[in-house]
Amino acid sequence: MDVAIATWQPQGIRRVEAMDLPRVPGVRYVVSWQMPGPDPVIPESLLCRDDISICFTDNPGLGANRVNACANCDADIILIADDDLIYTPSQLQAVIETFDRYPDVDFATFQFIGSPKRYPEKECDLTLPLPKGYYVTTFEMACRLQVIRKVNFDSRFGLGAPLFQSGEDTKFLYDAIKAGFHCRFFPITICTHDHPSTGDKPMSKGVAMAEGKLIRLQYPGSWILRTPLKAWRNKKKGGSFFPALYNLFRGALIKI
Q1: 3-class DSSP state for residue 81?
Q2: Which of 77, 83, 129, 242 has its CA 20 to 30 A from that of 13?
Q3: What single-letter DSSP state applies at residue 241?
Q4: How far apart are CA 128 and CA 62, in angstroms?
């Protein structure tokens, strides 16, 4: 299994170093270092590891960074990761074992410690629409190499992208389902992320535009009713209602 880690800016590689990535037989860490600066320095603690590979990109946006990470992976299984996670050997082995037990599953999602998000009550296939109240988080996702060779992340989505500044994870799962891959949720904890994710915070303009586009893609028959509900939930998190509603609709109406 390759663990595709996205990091960015000169200090990003220090966050990867702080992860203290465990050595696990059969697991390699592929780090995509985006915009590392004019004179990038890789810490010796990473350079000396034969299970860590570092590649570079200056293409903007988190989606583009994940594309680069996945493009440099060649293992049978690819686990998507960020630069601020905590893994244990048993958690990484659980991902591999899940794909071994389910040879017909192409794309799997799991659980993590650190968020009150709502998960399906039990293991289930993922189709459109997704189970009520469920949304995927990037570092819960793993897939077989054949998925990446046909459907990769959409570089127009993700933090730092020009318009759609989140949602690269949801778009990836959406594209995998639409491409006919067998996607399935497993109630297995695979990592710890001990601070809020984008989905836990009020929406910025770019995040709202991404959410609007994704709502329209997933719910083509009811998106116009769902966008006000999304804006209302944003207000409950401490954000705005009308500015969020405007940007949700604006994103939904942009053609991609």
Answers
A1: strand
A2: 77
A3: S
A4: 24
